[in-house]
Amino acid sequence: MRLLASAVRAKPAAFAIELYNEPMDFHSYDLVATWQECYEVIQKEVPGMLVGVMAIGEAAIPSWETIISPFQYYWLRSQPYLFFAFHWYGNPSSGAEAVTNAQWYSDNWRMPALMTEFMDCGMQDKVEKAGIGWLYWHFSSYCKQDGSWGACVCGWASGESTRICPATE
Q: InterPro entries, per this entry (predicted)?
């Protein structure tokens, strides 16, 4: 994380680092302890850089935070540059429920929420109405001419076709 933060320090478009994409680590104490260490190093390298944390898996699922320690819960609530990142690919099955869960984390962890991956254009409206930000993020070969994978913002690809929600075209 120190090397990543250092590499993007002078890049104004790099405003945040999402620490752990879709964590499947049920050792919540260790997971949050790792977040703490990463957060501290990132803040030393790039003071004020936003740092994203997320619940288990890809979704904003309820009750995950009940298995973290009281000290870690306090730490999450007191860091000024944390945000709650979540994805929505159909879990929970209702987009509205995903938004409600993300709002719950945002309120209880005292941090803004940001939907960082999704594949349903209707989710844009749902999160915007709830005051939650969103980004498109999908790894796709259409970003690089050599066919290798690259991170792309503003759409997703299925084979060679690219789809962008009508609101963003």
A: GH
Q: Is residue 154 part of a domain?
A: no
**Could you list the pLDDT tens digit for every one of the 169 residues in the chain?**
999 999 999 988 888 999 887 777 667 888 889 999 999 999 999 999 999 998 877 777 766 666 788 899 899 999 999 999 998 888 888 889 999 999 999 998 999 999 988 877 788 889 999 999 998 665 544 445 555 544 544 444 444 334 455 544 4
Q: Using an 8 Å Cβ cutoff, are 81 and 51 in contact?
A: yes
Supply the CATH number for residue 108's domain. Answer: 3.20.20.80
Q: How far apart are CA 110 and CA 77, in angstroms?
A: 5
For residues 66 and 32, the answer to whether their CB atoms sit within 8 Å is no
Instruction: Measure the CA–CA gap between 11 and 86, rounded to whole angstroms.
Output: 24
Asked if residue 82 belongs to a domain, the reply is: yes
150 within domain boundaries:
no
- Nearest partner of 58 among 21, 32, 94, 83, judged by Cα: 21
